[in-house]
Amino acid sequence: MTKIYLISDTHFGQRFVIEFSNRPFKNVKEMQIRLMANWNEEVNKKDLVIIVGDFYAGDKVFSKYLLNNLNGEKILIKGNHDYKYRYKKLLETEDIKVYSKIEFYVYNHKFILTHKPLKYIPKQAFNIHGHLHRKLLSPKYDQSKYYNVAVEHNLYKPIPVERILEDKLGIRNINQDIIIKQIKHSDINKQNQLPI
Fold first, then answer.
1. How far is CA 6 from CA 15, 26, 51, 57, 188, in A?
2. What integer pLDDT is reported at residue 47 of this predicted model?
């Protein structure tokens, strides 16, 4: 059975993030090795990984290397460091789709996936986000409505969607195929897909 994982702010190939986020790595190579190993220990080849922004920096060869060596089917939600020239290199590989945001429903609860946390969330909705490296969320937001999947807050590993659903809704064993169909085929998500 296919499982869904979420991860954000890997920043593959970006040295600045080690110091900026106080990551426990000596250099970019060490960071990349650890992040890739953690990813592949959690995710199987048939799983779906939603990268909630700020994936990588580098050329087309590096993007192809990452996509080929990280397990699972990959979808990217554009982050503030996923500049157009970067995500176009990803799209040219034809191994990933890029979205501005993604939405799905579980038991009448809406989940909105965005790189930056939303300022306003509809009733009975939750925001899965990244972007915030040093803190989970500003105290001005209702903490119960958000889930930060940035690697600094999750042991530098992808998070199973079932953990998020249990945390927010108190439910387990959701049929993830239903969520995958919504992600890939709903009209709203098709509208949020970015073209090459």
1. 22, 25, 6, 19, 20
2. 97
DSSP conformation class of 36: H
pLDDT per residue as tens digits for the range 36-89: 999 999 999 999 999 999 999 888 888 889 999 999 999 999 988 876 766 676
User: Minimal CA–CA distance to 73: which of 176, 195, 188?
Assistant: 176
Take residue 78 and report the two structure tokens written for it. 């554009």
Beta-ladder partners of 128: 113, 147
Largest CA distance in the chain: 45
**Token code pair at residue 87:** 């995500």
Cβ 3 vs Cβ 164: under 8 Å: no
d(CA 189, CA 169): 23
Residue 158 neighbours by CB distance under 10 Å: 29
Tokens representing 193 are 């897909």
Contact 160, 3 (CB under 8 A): yes
| Cβ atoms of residues 72 and 98 within 8 Å | no
Predicted TM-score of the model (pTM): 0.94
Of 39, 17, 20, which is closest to residue 28 (Cα–Cα)?
Answer: 17
